[in-house]
Amino acid sequence: MKNDPVVAIAGVTGAVGAEFIATMDRRGFRVGKLKALASARSAGKPVDFRGAKIVVEELREDSFAGVDIALFSAGGGISRKFALLAVKAGAVVIDNSSAFRMDPDVPLVIPEINADRIRDHKGIIAVPNCSAITALVPLWPIHKANRIKRLIISTYQAASGAGAAAMQELVESTRASLNGQAFTPKVIPHPYAFNVFSHNTAIDPATGYNDEETKVIKETRKIFEDERIAVGVTCVRVPVLRAHCQAITFECEKPITEHEVRAILSSAPGVRIVDDRTKNYFPMPVDASGQDDVLVGRIRKDLSDPTGHSISMFVAADQLLKGAALNAIQIAELLPQRVMA
């Protein structure tokens, strides 16, 4: 149709770039033309889109002429260099990097929580950190019913959060380990096979928190529009390909029971309860992979809080989908510019 938008994907050959294409196709997101953009080394390669071969173009300063929606997932440096150029060319940028998330003029959007903020954009809309999305989708409806005043989160983060190369390194290092062969890490700074380690982002020497943890703290407060929330978080990499998990304990202002939490989450958008105590069956990466919903289970009273204000639970979500590509496409679907004739 003549009113279908021209969509550009910056970082189309990466793990999230591939999910952008698959998610648009699966959700029937209408596209008049797709521009596939990546680094010079990927230029000329074909990508499949709805039965056609789209030739990858080198991402350049003039790549966004005629583009209506630009989906970015090529890292913060690329976003900082090219996103404003895309806006100047007339595109709305939906950015999956950390480049603009804490900019007060840039909406930081999870559609299940604050879709109304989309209309405030000045050309750029930021997709939150994948760990923040995983936690906040199920926490938001609880927060609306009974304000959460304190959060303790421990993450179990998959290789996909570090990109396709990290996923491949996990596969190769695991194969080498099983075969008794030495493997030298190239993407991840520590041995990945059968290992768990602190998230591979820089540590703030003053606080001891890594960048991933700081993002979760700051983004939670921005998205919930509540600077008073106390957040403690520990982010860890685990040898899983693509679904993040989290152990979450939250403290509410008023007493709350596990039955109230289940009732709230049973109708919460983007959430599916997986909580079978009899079978000891709860959210797992193997079940979350490829799914749109955040899986929530192990919902139980926090026995360390005798006041009855705290609940613990365990969640899992596909980092490439709800943690990245799906969230971005949901935003694009809600853009006023997407209204078709």
Question: Secondary-structure blueprint of this entry?
Answer:
Layout lengths: L5 E5 L4 H12 L6 E6 L7 E4 L2 E4 L1 E2 L10 E4 L3 H13 L3 E4 L15 H4 L9 E3 L3 H16 L2 E10 L6 H15 L18 E2 L12 H14 L5 E8 L5 E10 L5 H8 L5 E3 L11 H4 L5 E8 L8 E9 L2 H14 L7
Parallel strand pairs: 1-2, 1-6, 2-5, 6-7, 7-8, 9-11, 13-14
Antiparallel strand pairs: 3-4, 9-12, 10-11, 12-15, 14-15
Helix pairs in contact: 1-9, 4-6
SS-based structural class?
Answer: alpha/beta
Quaternary state of this entry equals: single chain
Count of β-strands: 15
N-to-C terminal Cα separation, in Å? 9 Å
Q: For the report, how would you describe the main beta sheet?
A: 7 strands, mixed
pLDDT averaged over residues: 95
Task: List the defining traits of the structure above.
alpha/beta, single chain, six-stranded parallel β-sheet, 341 residues, globular, seven-stranded mixed β-sheet, disordered C terminus
Q: What is the gist of this entry?
A:
This protein has helices at residues 15-26, 76-88, 111-114, 130-145, 164-178, 211-224, 258-265, 285-288, 321-334; strands spanning 6-10, 33-38, 46-49, 52-55, 57-58, 69-72, 92-95, 124-126, 148-157, 197-198, 230-237, 243-252, 271-273, 294-301, 310-318. It is α/β, with parallel strands linked by helices.
